[in-house]
Write a structure and sequence with these properties.
The protein is α+β, with helices and mostly antiparallel strands. It has helices spanning 20-23, 32-44, 48-53, and strands spanning 71-83, 90-101, 104-117, 120-132. Strand 1 and strand 2 form a beta hairpin. It starts with 19 loop residues before the first helix and ends in a 22-residue tail after the last strand. Bound molecules: zinc ion (2 copies). One zinc ion (ZN) is lined by residues 74, 141, 143, 145, 152-153. One zinc ion (ZN) is lined by residues 7, 9, 11, 18-19, 37, 41.
Amino acid sequence: MSEQQQCPCGSKKTYVECCMPVLEGTARAETAEQLMRSRYTAFSKMNNEYLLASWAAKTRPKQLDTDETPVKWINLEILDTEQGTAQDANGTVSFIASFIVSGHLCHLQEKSSFIKEDDTWFYLDGIPESSTKKIPRNSSCPCGSGKKFKRCCL
Ligand SMILES: [Zn+2]
Ligand SMILES: [Zn+2]
C-alpha cells in the first residue's frame, strides 16, 4: 500500500496521516472515534495483533480466529458518537462497516463502547446488528469509487 493512498477508514486523509501512526504505535488515538477507525483499518489489513492490543484487558479474547473466507472491507460510516473525546474516560461510537464476503455485500452495524485507561483508549464491547443485502452488479460501488460495483470491489 502506497503511503499516499487514502486511509481505509474513510477519513479522506492519507494512511500516513491517519491510522498508520496509531497502528504502528507511534501515536495514540486521542478519541474513541480515532480508535474505532484504527481498528477498522486493522480489520481491513488483518492486523490481529493490533486488534488484540487495542482491546480492553477484561473483555479481550485470548486469540482471534483468522477467517478462512476472505473478507474485503470496503467502507466505514460513523453514525454517531457519544462522549469519547480527549477529555472523557469512556464513550460509544455507532457505525456501519461494509464488507464483501463470497460476492455478497454485508453491513455490520454496531454500537461499540470504549474506555480509556492510562491515557489510552481501548475497545470494550459492542452490540452488533448484522444485516446483509444484495446490491445489483451494475449499481455504483458502495466504496464510493464512482465505478460500477461489478468493476470495482465485487
Ligand atoms: Zn484512518
Ligand atoms: Zn469499490
